[in-house]
Amino acid sequence: xxxxxxxxxxxxxxINPDKYVAEGPPFEAFRRLRAEAPVYxxxxxxxxxxxxxxxxxxxxxxxxDPETFISSKGVSMATDPANADQLGAAGRMMLMTDPxxxxxxxxxxxKGFTPRQIAALEPHVRAIVRDILDDVAPRGECDFVEDIxxxxxxxxxxEMMGVPRADWHYMFxxxxxxxxxxxxxxxxxxxxxxxxxxxxxxxxxGYYARLVQARRAQPTDDLVSIITHAEVxxxxxxxxxxxxxxxxxxxxxxETTRNATSGGMLALIEHxxxxxxxxxxxxxxxxxxxxxxxxxxxVMHFARVAARxxxxxxxxxxxxxxxxxxxxxxxxxxxVFADPDVFDVGRTPxxxxxxxxxxxxxxxxxLARLELVVMFQELLRxxxxxxxAGPVERxxxxxxxxxxxxxxxxxxx
Length: 413
Known about the structure:
alpha+beta, CATH 1.10.630.10, 5-stranded mixed sheet, 3-stranded antiparallel sheet, globular
């Protein structure tokens, strides 16, 4: 589908993953679009074009209207809404469902993520963080991503799903290959991006198929048991639906929090005055976590498809056209955030959309907040003088704002 919309700005490329590597996301391009073309027709690259949505108010409005802007035709920038039936198993993931089924699926695992349940996890989360820091503190240096940031969310989601500790690193590797398949470091030799991601997903499905079989025979209180034995509309989930649920939980449960932790630590390193504020006043850390989420925006975009003809800011949007919601841009919207390009650990209010909004608001938002607060409380207390020990290596991706490696050093303790 080709739009006849005017193109008032030039040289905009929000697709090429290389543009997200060297210095991070193309913030200048997003700034221009917010000012000159907040609803911008972007040509595709081997896939249909889309409307780039860069203003916060428009993103919120679209997210809160799941009848007009649906998820079941694809949530990726690269999907073709006209061929949604060819998405295969991924097309039946909870992420790609619309109400009322989406709501029913969320209810299956909601009780594991209630504020009360998450608050009860705080002592356990803190114990894990302390173990992580006990391991690295005597060294005086480490790769912050692999040795610190990745370990906490991976441990928590694996425990919640009932994955044995011996398999945690395997889940880490499979997550990297699924989410980071655009990055040469994670691509399997001789395979392209799609093949690498597909192979990793098949391995995840194979792993959880065995775990589901075990939980059918002997249920426990973990999330895999809950999903395996749950009913939606009076029917048990199919094996495929269960495996897709497991895929979503393991990817979302460790990737985004890992990248928020790494990106947040980098922001504190690059803004020593803000780190000094937190060292002087640790009570600010929960507020700082919200600023880290806004600043990093670990998931940079999701897509929706117009189910009927509509308009945004007077720009007609035809049924079947994609809109891509750029959270990374909305979280720098000058009309919502004062001095949006300033990292301010005391920023209030801070109505960021890093967790999304509306029907698809992140299921694990409360858990991610707890993990981030505890991690930074302990990090700043135990390793207050972390500094760079080598170049930061960013993930080659237009979807996840990730850091692959971040060498750091600190006073051994």
